[in-house]
Amino acid sequence: MNNPNLREEVDMRRTFAIISHPDAGKTTITEQLLLFGGAIRQAGTVKGKKTGNFAKSDWMEIEKQRGISVTSSVMQFDYDGKRVNILDTPGHEDFSEDTYRTLMAVDSAVMVIDSAKGIEAQTKKLFQVVKKRGIPIFTFINKLDRDGREPLELLEELEELLDIESYPMNWPIGMGKGLEGLYDIYNNRVELYRPDNYGGERFVPLDDAGDIPENHPLKGNSLFSDVQEEVELLKEAGDSFNRKKIARGDQTPVFFGSALTNFGVQTFLETFLEFAPSPYGHKTIDGQEVSPYEQDFSGFVFKIQANMNPAHRDRIAFVRICSGTFERGMDVFLERTGKKMKLANVTQFMADTRENIQEAVAGDIIGVYDTGNYQIGDTIYEGKLKVAYEELPSFTPELFMKVQAKNVMKQKSFHKGIYQLVQEGAIQLYKTYLTEEYIIGAVGQLQFEVFQYRMQNEYNAEVIMTPMGHKIARWIDPKDLDEKMSSSRNILARDRFDQPLFLFENQFAMRWFSDKYPNVELKSLM
Ligand code: G4P
């Protein structure tokens, strides 16, 4: 479709994910952002799933049946002339490959850290995926209204554990009960936590020397003077602000704040929107790059959400638009099969009523109702564009289960189900080398639950699953393979492409193997 405003519309898009360890405050900050964007009217709408705009959407129904969050998968709102798309990346037990793949569909990421806890396990895992993509990463250190760790110590930990430079955009003035405000380095002003103690205004502009103006009640405040010195030191000794490094994901701008008390969040949002990139070009399998301003529509499927309602077999394929404009009812081609598809039944994720149909362009996410045509990683395109986007990476599973059909008479549906779900990317499948037992692998427990549920409900195949726990999966070159390498501390298997791999009991078993076979290279997926 020819859209004369395409460039302008693409340039106003900001599509990002918020990553964090559970409880760092991702939901709280997301809610604040939605409130600023006018997408929700009261806090608690996302988390508490109380009344609100979300309730009006059909997603609520699906969510109720599944009992896990679907509504919050994609949230869109307008702020300050920008159209913001936030993609949810669940932590906890919801954790799955979906979470990782979602990070393939964003242009930047925000990492939320609890100021009392610092870098936690899940943040680190998600960060590594984002880092590999080389996209900008912004950091929000949360819960400043509580006593946390020293800001400097937090930055040091961040740099050390995540191997990234940090640049503080602001610096806390006090903390917990003693929190007075933020020294907003980037905007050269102070943002007061308790404006009423200092004349009522939230922002105090600083002079050119970074000083409080004469006759302001904050003048002479010793806490502020200490922070001023600290900031001077940071400016001298720390890394300087570097836009290029930020764009590559080699430096992260760090913001402190408190999501719960809505302190520092709006400044964060405004600064973030200033620096976060608009959609970039996407690479195709043959190394070309498709510009988001290309008029023909194209996109790729990064997630398939099964509708767990047994009465409907439909699913929703989440498509990241990479170029052009989506129009309801348009015809596209599914690259893998060459089949022509009509995009008739499509959801656009406005956190608003469904009737409020907005146009979708490169950078946006659409949800295509699917009756089984799409697979994860599929490209769809309009007209003559004929592109195939790069394959989405597979992630090394960490959890494994042995799986078999409960009813031996139902082998056929068991196999059909398992192969379809594997193709869809819901789960990874392996077979033990000699005995050909089925093993499924996942990065998160939720994947197993969804697998079991769908096998039963969609394929009428009850499965027996035997947990094998954590294993370390490593692939080897088939030419190195010797069946004698298999021992009691590892399991030799092959993946669905017939490639050999070992499932090691633990690090120790893997090291033992490497010592014994120093010439055999052990490879992981992403
Ligand atoms: P998550 O999505 O990252 O898992 O975190 P979520 O926002 O649900 O926040 C986890 C807990 O931390 C919540 O408390 C929330 O209220 C609290 N929290 C978030 N931001 C801040 C902050 O800036 N300061 C303080 N002091 N607390 C914060 P909860 O008791 O687990 O839940 P709730 O009953 O309050 O909803």
Notable traits:
about 525 residues; alpha+beta; Rossmann fold; Alpha-Beta Plaits; 3 domains; seven-stranded mixed β-sheet; seven-stranded antiparallel β-sheet; 12 helices; about 25% helix; about 30% strand; globular; binds guanosine-5',3'-tetraphosphate; translation release factor activity, codon nonspecific; translation release factor activity, codon specific; protein biosynthesis; T_Tr_GTP-bd_dom
**What characterizes the major β-sheet?**
7 strands, mixed
Q: How much helicity do the residues have?
A: 10-25%
Alpha carbon gap, first and last residue: 36 Å
Distinct small molecules: guanosine-5',3'-tetraphosphate
Mean pLDDT: 88
Protein architecture, described:
- This protein has 526 residues and is of the alpha+beta class.
- It has three domains: 271 residues, Rossmann fold (3-Layer(aba) Sandwich); 100 residues, P-loop containing nucleotide triphosphate hydrolases (Rossmann fold); 125 residues, Alpha-Beta Plaits, CATH 3.30.70.3280.
- Helices cover 24% and strands 28% of the residues.
- It is built from twelve helices and 29 strands.
- The strands form six sheets. Strands 2-3-1-4-5-11-6 form a seven-stranded mixed β-sheet, sandwiched between helices.
- Helix 10 packs across helix 11.
- It binds guanosine-5',3'-tetraphosphate (G4P).
- The site of guanosine-5',3'-tetraphosphate has 16 residues, from helix 2.
- It is found in: Cytoplasm.
- This is Peptide chain release factor 3.
- Belongs to the TRAFAC class translation factor GTPase superfamily. Classic translation factor GTPase family. PrfC subfamily.
- Its main location: cytoplasm.
- GO terms for molecular function: GTP binding; GTPase activity; translation release factor activity, codon nonspecific; translation release factor activity, codon specific.
